[in-house]
C-alpha cells in the first residue's frame, strides 16, 4: 500500500510556541516604549528608530548564548556589536526582566552580575557598575518598577527596592528602600511626604523623573 507523505511545512509545536513567545515579548516591549515615551508615533517608528529597544532585544539573544559554555565568546562579540550600533553596553551575563525600556539609550552600561526586574526604566548615561575586582556578585540588583535618571551611577552589589526612583546624576552606593527617591552625590534617600502635591509637575515627589 502506498503511504502518502505529508508535505506540510507547518512548524513543530515547540517551535511554534517559541515563535509565539518571541512575538509576544516584542509586542510587549513596543507597547511599553509607546506608553513611556510621549514622542513616539507608532510601532513602525519604535521598531526602526529606538536603539534602546534594539539593545535589549540583542542582549536577550546574547544572554541565551552566554548560558552555553561554547558560545561565551560569540556572546561577547555580539554584545560588542550591540554596543557599536546602539551605544548601549550590556554584558551578556546580566539578567534583565520584562518590559525594560532604555530611553535615548546612549551611554548606558550594565555590568555582568547586574540583575534588573520587570518594568524598569533607564535613561541615557546610566551606569550599573561594580566596585570590586573579584569574581563575585559585584553589580546592582534593580527591583521591579524602578526609574533611574540620566547620568545616574548605581555602583556595587546594592539593592534598589521596587518602585524607587533615582534622580539624574545621583551616585548610589548603598541600598535604596522601596518606593523612595534618591538624589545627589552621594545619593541621599528621601521618603515622600504624605501630603505630596501631585498637581505641581516640578514637585520631586509628584514626578522625580523631572530630574531626568
TrEMBL record:
CDD domains: LbH_SAT. Its EC number is 2.3.1.30. The keyword Amino-acid biosynthesis applies. It comes from the Bacteria. It holds the Pfam family Hexapep. It catalyses: L-serine + acetyl-CoA = O-acetyl-L-serine + CoA. Keywords: Acyltransferase, Amino-acid biosynthesis, Cysteine biosynthesis, Repeat, Transferase. Signal peptide: none annotated. Pathway: Amino-acid biosynthesis; L-cysteine biosynthesis; L-cysteine from L-serine: step 1/2. Belongs to the transferase hexapeptide repeat family. PANTHER family: SERINE ACETYLTRANSFERASE. NCBIfam families: cysE, EPS_EpsC. This is Serine acetyltransferase. It comes from Angustibacter luteus.
Amino acid at each position: 500500500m502506498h503511504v502518502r507523505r505529508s508535505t506540510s511545512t507547518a512548524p513543530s509545536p515547540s517551535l511554534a510556541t517559541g515563535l509565539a513567545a518571541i512575538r509576544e515579548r516584542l509586542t510587549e516591549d513596543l507597547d511599553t516604549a509607546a506608553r513611556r515615551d510621549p514622542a513616539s508615533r507608532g510601532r513602525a517608528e519604535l521598531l526602526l528608530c529606538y536603539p534602546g529597544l534594539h539593545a535589549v532585544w540583542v542582549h536577550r539573544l546574547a544572554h541565551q548564548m552566554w548560558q552555553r559554555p561554547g558560545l561565551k565568546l560569540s556572546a561577547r562579540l555580539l554584545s560588542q556589536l550591540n554596543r557599536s550600533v546602539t551605544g548601549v553596553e550590556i554584558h551578556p551575563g546580566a539578567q534583565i526582566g520584562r518590559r525594560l525600556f532604555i530611553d535615548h539609550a546612549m551611554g548606558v552600561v550594565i555590568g555582568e552580575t547586574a540583575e534588573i526586574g520587570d518594568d524598569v526604566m533607564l535613561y541615557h548615561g546610566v551606569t550599573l557598575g561594580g566596585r570590586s575586582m573579584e569574581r563575585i556578585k559585584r553589580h546592582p540588583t534593580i527591583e521591579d518598577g524602578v526609574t533611574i535618571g540620566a547620568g545616574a551611577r548605581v555602583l556595587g552589589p546594592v539593592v534598589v527596592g521596587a518602585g524607587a526612583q533615582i534622580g539624574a546624576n545621583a551616585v548610589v552606593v548603598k541600598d535604596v528602600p522601596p518606593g523612595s527617591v534618591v538624589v545627589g552625590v552621594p545619593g541621599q534617600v528621601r521618603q515622600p511626604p504624605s501630603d505630596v502635591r501631585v498637581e505641581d509637575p516640578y514637585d520631586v515627589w509628584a514626578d522625580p523623573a523631572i530630574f531626568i
